[in-house]
Design a protein that fits this description.
Oligomer: single chain
Number of helices: 11
CATH class of the largest domain: Alpha Beta
Order of helices and strands: HHEHEHEEHEHHEHEHHEH
CATH superfamily of the largest domain: Vaccinia Virus protein VP39
Shape: globular
Radius of gyration: 21 Å
CATH topology of the largest domain: Rossmann fold
Helix content: 25-40%
Number of strands: 8
Distance between the termini: 63 Å
Length: 293
């Protein structure tokens, strides 16, 4: 499955945004399957060149990112959420994107260079084993990525490890209520397209709790309606009727959770403000002609 995901998303990195938007998470049969993605155009920091229309939500909109934060984006693609996060964290903050696919990393780095951002960094790596130190980030975001990962529990454990005490995440992802037919679950194409890799919503939330994260909240939920012509590539007409009658729901959710350890995040921000004021005062003091220079 990891090889399938890497191959599919390498292809996506090479194709146009319009092609991605006309298919299931950028893969599968072209059509009118744009219902997963949401518009970033109103968000500060949005850059169309970095938007491959691969998401299923707007996690950065709900992530409560503050100036000076260090933000981590899991499955950063061409850099879309990283650049929106960078607008929120400001020049004093830092944004790190981690992606599994070398082609995506190259495309994201090119976008960052074009924009002249020196506080946005892209690292190639597996989000089941993040290339970051313990307690090193304030906020984690991710958009329609964990459903592609076989061991989702391991990812949440890694999120817990890299978050600072009091840090939090906001993640948009695909979950299920009810069981998918075997033919859909076994489709590698739909796995790479974010559907068959989804798990039950209750199990998803339970994995977050098992990882030691708390204050779990669903910030947003919307149904995903997969077009019949895509389902019919994997199901017979009778199978499609049974599936539609089964009550199974496919949902995009944006979920929030925190790492325990007290709200030292606010204290860090106050310290940053004090340090910045001291630095500005020192610069002003040492200007030519000042009394203390």
């Amino acid at each position: 499955m990891k090889s399938t995901v890497r191959e599919k998303y390498a292809d996506i990195a090479r194709q146009s945004r319009e092609t991605n938007a006309a298919s299931c998470c950028g893969v599968g049969t072209p059509g009118t399957y744009t219902i997963m993605s949401e518009s970033y155009s109103s968000l500060k920091g949005y850059n169309p060149d970095a938007d491959l229309s691969l998401g299923c939500g707007l996690p950065t909109e709900h992530a409560h990112i503050a100036e000076g934060d260090t933000v981590l984006d899991l499955g950063s693609g061409a850099g879309n959420d990283c650049f929106v996060a960078r607008a929120a964290t400001g020049p004093e903050g830092k944004v790190i994107g981690v992606d599994f696919t070398p082609e995506m990393i190259r495309r994201a780095r090119l976008n960052a260079e074009k924009l002249g951002f020196n506080n946005v960094e892209f690292r190639q790596g597996d989000i089941e084993e993040l290339p970051l130190s313990d307690n090193s980030v304030d906020v984690v975001v991710s958009n329609c990525v964990l459903n592609l990962v076989p061991d989702k529990g391991r990812v949440f454990s890694e999120i817990h490890r890299v978050l600072r005490p009091g840090g939090h995440f906001s993640i948009s992802d695909i979950v299920l209520v009810g069981e998918l037919p075997d033919a859909l679950r076994q489709s590698a194409e739909l796995y790479a397209g974010c559907v068959s890799g989804a798990i039950q919503q209750a199990d998803y939330l339970d994995l977050i709790q098992q990882a030691g994260l708390e204050n779990i909240q669903i910030q947003k939920s919307k149904p995903i309606l997969v077009p019949d012509h895509i389902l019919l590539e994997h199901l017979s007409e009778a199978g499609l009727r049974d599936f539609l009658a089964s009550g199974t729901g496919i949902f995009s959710i944006t979920v929030y959770a925190e790492k325990p350890g007290g709200d030292d995040r606010s204290a860090r921000h106050e310290k940053r403000k004090v340090n910045l004021i001291e630095l500005q005062t020192a610069i002003a003091c040492c200007e030519p002609g000042s009394s203390c220079c």
